[in-house]
Amino acid sequence: MTIRLTDSRPARLPLTGADCFLRAFDAEIGRWNGASHVSGLVLRLGPGFDVEIFRKLLDDVAREQPILGAPIRRRFGLGLPEYRLDPGRDGPPPVSVHDVDAPRAAGAPLPAIFSRRLNERRSLRRGELIRFDVVRYAGGAGGTELAMTWMHLLLDGAGSERFVQWLDEVHRGAVGASDLPDPDELRGDAPSSRSLAERGDAARRWKAWVDGFAEPPLRSLAGPRRRVPQDLRFDVLHLNRDETERAVAQAGRRAGFLTPMLFYLAAAIRAHHAVFEARGVDPGAYLVPLPVNLRPRGREGAIFRTHVSLIWFHVDPAVVGDFDALIDELKAQRRAAIKAGHVENGVAAMEFVRSAPARLYARMARSGTKGELCSFFFAYTGEFLPGIERFLGAEIHDGFHVAPVPPSPGSCMAMSIHRGRLNLTHVFQRSVVADDERRRMRDSLRRDLLSEAGR
Amino acid sequence: MDEPTTETLTKRIFEILRDEILNVDAGFSPQSNLVDAGLDSLAVTQLMLSIEESTGVWVDEGLLTPENLATAETLAALVYEQLTGT
């Protein structure tokens, strides 16, 4: 008899604290904006991608990894939310194919279906966690665009890339569909080494830190949240290889070789500031959360669930005019946050409110900041699919993340580098950022990313 | 920490990395590549905070180049430069 790994997995898998926090995001977006908290990843592929082989692969994988379609429910309707892992109950994730007669034109906009997927209402209770859209040009001979969209709590940014990489490894037969890179990841969480009292103290310290962001009050481009339908769109700023080389060199020189995200975050803050200045509106303060990857070192392979904490930056707009002063401010705030233990404190806070994460969300969005969650969302994920040149045999011409954002703050910038080219995806709520304002943001970004001034 | 030398700094940095920051095996040495051993953005800041606690010197992130962060030895040389101004 063959004993598969799935045989020894639990039938229920609790959500991490960060998952629960994201579940609260989803519930709030559903309540206020009629949509879900859906994240995306886009691959632009050359010829050779076979949809039927992909469907078969997903079929095999879904049988072995029931988390892909697992309903998320509370035990007896009251306990901690958990995945119900029932092998064989659900089919594979849906794959929709959209055919375009002509080959893909250079510089053509991304298919509208990719944006529409961000605004769907999906059910966690029914396990509608992930789906794929394949846009085939000239029957595939003219290339293919593949969008994977998923409920954000199923995969974080790093996990989504690991998932794509792992799918390809399964396709090539390098690993089996039951063999996850981290075999322990679906066995529940290890007990914390800290006592309940220690975790409580840590959570309180994080709460006090977040409470301190109330003054001065911030203002996002969208303004305080209100009941509007979620209508997210996105566009991508691509830098060529020469430009990317310059930007990467600047990021390393001014923010540090291992901490370039502070350079990119500074550029993103200044891009938003350019719009506030043009509007003649005082942003109050810039409040931006930066996701921090928390995979245990030496176990980088975990795919499913979110393994992140947050570092918050609270920036006085008076600093924003000087790019290097702003980078210095971000460095100092990040250093202070890590020294104070807020990366770990954030984990403790999210773990503490697993049974009622909406309280933490609502506290941030309603009390301290008067309806504003933050100024905008930001993520820098470094190399996108490093070392991976093909997916199911088709060359990957380009790839990037499409990180979601609620209609308020209504703006999110995600950056990554694929094969030496920096991609900046700007996801925005339609009507929050006008076309000329997006041009202004792109101009500001290019100016900063390619600037030779400063240190 | 009294009158550090590059040797004592190398030893201290190596111990911080081995015991507090990285999850490394017995083969990890002062000559091991730090990024290959798992040094990332969070770990490097935790490391620099520990070095600051030991030496009183904060090394600006902009000075942390791939060459300076190659090994515990190269990092110790940078910290020594910052300490002594040489």
Please supply descriptive tags for the structure shown above.
heterodimer; A: 455 residues; alpha+beta; Chloramphenicol Acetyltransferase; 2 domains; six-stranded mixed β-sheet; four-stranded mixed β-sheet; 36% helix; disordered N terminus; B: 86 residues; mainly alpha; Non-ribosomal Peptide Synthetase Peptidyl Carrier Protein, Chain A; 3 helices; globular
Characterization of the model:
The complex is a heterodimer of chains A (455) and B (86). Chain A has 455 residues and is α+β, with helices and mostly antiparallel strands. Chain A has two domains: 168 residues, Chloramphenicol Acetyltransferase, CATH 3.30.559; 254 residues, Chloramphenicol Acetyltransferase (2-Layer Sandwich), CATH 3.30.559.30. Helices cover 36% and strands 22% of the residues of chain A. In chain A, the strands form four sheets. A six-stranded mixed beta sheet of chain A has the order 5-6-7-2-13-12, with helices on both faces. Chain A has a four-stranded mixed beta sheet with strand order 8-15-14-11, with helices on both faces. In chain A, strands 1-4-3 form a three-stranded antiparallel beta sheet, with no helix packed on it. In chain A, strand 14 and strand 15 form a beta hairpin. In chain A, helix 1 packs across helix 10. With 86 residues, chain B is mostly helical. In chain B, 51% of the residues lie in helices and 0% in strands. Chain B has three helices and no strands. In chain B, helix 1 packs across helix 2 and helix 1 crosses helix 3. Chain B is globular. In chain B, 36% of the residues are buried. The mean pLDDT of chain B is 92. The interface between A and B is medium-sized, with 22 and 24 residues.
